[in-house]
Design a protein that fits this description.
Oligomer: single chain
Structural class: alpha+beta
Order of helices and strands: HEEHHEEEEHEEEE
Helix content: 10-25%
Shape: globular
Number of helices: 4
Number of strands: 10
Mean pLDDT: 84
Length: 176
């Protein structure tokens, strides 16, 4: 029994690591989690239903709702907004996808723990903004967000930073 169990566990762990390494962050999204996906498309992709309590109430166009999920072995947050197509016609659409999993990298090789200089050097053709983060309505001395926007993409990549080191990634729809 032990001879069979050890190789099986080894195969399972290698498969889990391979799944994590195949997901990358780009301006298009985090793997198949992409800004612009409709709620029904995401539910079909993940074979799971989501309840958006904050967006279900009223017609507040500026409202947002966040769901936490697992996608191919990584934890992620997806932020939805209500998008109107007419007076009474709307859909719930993904506006941002976030993760802080250690095994995730951008397609250009930036990973959790990398510094601001690597981001700036790697994305020297893009528009880059560094935005302050706020803690209890006070500008943080340690946290910030670096936004990378390429001319030919509809989305932006956000690098969440603490002490100028990457601690997480987001991909956000243009205009958000």
């Amino acid at each position: 029994m032990k001879r069979f169990l050890i190789p099986l566990l080894l195969i399972c762990s290698v498969t889990a690591v391979a799944q994590n390494n195949s997901i990358s962050v780009s301006a298009a999204g985090i793997g198949e989690l992409k800004p612009g996906l409709k709620k029904a498309e995401l539910e079909k992709l993940l074979n799971r239903k989501f309840i958006l309590n904050n967006l279900a109430i009223g017609r507040n166009q500026g409202g947002r709702d966040t769901v936490h999920l697992m996608y191919n072995g990584i934890e992620a947050q997806v932020i939805f907004r209500k998008e109107f197509y007419g007076n009474y016609t709307f859909d719930f659409v993904v506006m941002e996808v976030m993760t802080s999993n250690a095994g995730i990298k951008t397609m250009s090789g930036i990973a959790i723990g990398d510094d601001v200089q690597k981001i700036v050097t790697t994305h020297n053709e893009a528009t880059i903004e560094i935005l302050p983060a706020f803690e209890n309505k006070i500008k943080s001395q340690t946290q910030s967000v670096l936004r990378v926007q390429n001319k030919n993409t509809n989305n932006a990549m956000l690098f969440h930073l603490v002490d100028n080191k990457v601690v997480g990634f987001s991909v956000v729809a243009n205009g958000c």
